[in-house]
Design goal:
The complex is a heterodimer of chains A (112) and B (115). With 112 residues, chain A is mainly β. Chain A has no helices and eleven strands. Chain A has strands spanning 5-7, 10-14, 19-24, 31-37, 44-49, 55-58, 61-65, 71-76, 85-92, 100-102, 106-111. In chain A, β7 (61-65) and β8 (71-76) form a beta hairpin. The radius of gyration of chain A is 14 Å and the shape is globular. The relative contact order of chain B is 0.33. In chain B, the strands form two sheets. In chain B, strands 2, 4, 5, 6, 9, 10 and 11 form a seven-stranded mixed sheet that branches. A four-stranded antiparallel sheet of chain B has the order 1-3-8-7, with no helix packed on it. Chain B is globular, with a radius of gyration of 13 Å. Chain B starts with a strand and ends with a strand. Classes of the chains: A mainly beta (112), B mainly beta (115). The interface between A and B is medium-sized, with 27 and 27 residues.
Chain lengths: 112, 115
């Protein structure tokens, strides 16, 4: 199964620090979603980006879609313990393939 | 209301049991999905229903049998499972199964333990 390269895979930081998670691919995506998942729960959609160069903000979270729509980043400012969870990116290939591609996930732990 | 409801939340079953997982959405979505997820891994697609017809089966063993009684409901029938089938099973839905920016909404999942 083709995957988005998501990094880092694991991240443990102190409360108040900043962090960035990356999703990269050699393929172009029609859209890309970021999800956050807590243990034992389903993924919760954070954002959908569809336009190259698009930047979306959700409180302390900033999402960027690369100009060529091959990559995306999630930046968290002043992380809090409540940000702890598994962050997943998911890209959608339009065209004949019409495939949804997942990153492997970033497991984030924010320590008080 | 972006809600996908799954029941039960937890299920423990023996290898000879027959059980079912249920999923419901009332967003008017025409595509519904079953995913399997192991701890700290991304969800793995199992089945896709589009307009109540099975459109994708990702080579899932026949001990998993999906059913879509109508556009709002999706079931996953389980029979003769193995301990390695223990996982979080996620139901999801989207407006349809194609199209740019087609966002998938997930339920909270059903934790399945096979003993």
């Amino acid at each position: 199964t083709q995957l988005l390269e998501q990094s880092p895979q694991f991240l443990s930081i102190q409360e108040g620090e900043n962090l960035t998670v990356y999703c990269n691919s050699s393929s172009v995506f029609s859209s890309l979603q970021w999800y956050r998942q807590e243990p034992g729960e389903g993924p919760v959609l954070l954002v959908t980006v569809v336009t190259g160069g698009e930047v979306k903000k959700l409180k302390r979270l900033t999402f960027q879609f690369g100009d060529a729509r091959k990559d995306s980043s999630l930046h968290i400012t002043a992380a809090q313990p409540g940000d702890t969870g598994l962050y997943l990116c998911q890209g959608f290939h339009a065209g004949n393939n019409r495939k949804l591609i997942w990153g492997l996930g970033t497991s984030l732990a924010v320590n008080p | 209301d972006t809600e996908v409801t799954q029941t039960p939340k937890h299920l423990v079953m023996g290898m000879t049991n027959k059980k079912s997982l249920k999923c419901e959405q009332h967003m008017g979505h025409r595509a519904m999905y079953w995913y399997k997820q192991k701890a700290k891994k991304p969800p793995e697609l199992m089945f896709v229903y589009s307009y109540e017809k099975l459109s994708i089966n990702e080579s899932v063993p026949s001990r998993f049998s999906p059913e879509c009684p109508n556009s709002s409901l999706l079931n996953l029938h389980l029979h003769a499972l193995q301990p390695e089938d223990s996982a979080l099973y996620l139901c999801a839905s989207s407006q349809d199964s194609s199209g740019t920016g087609n966002t998938i909404y997930f339920g909270e999942g059903s934790w399945l333990t096979v003993v």
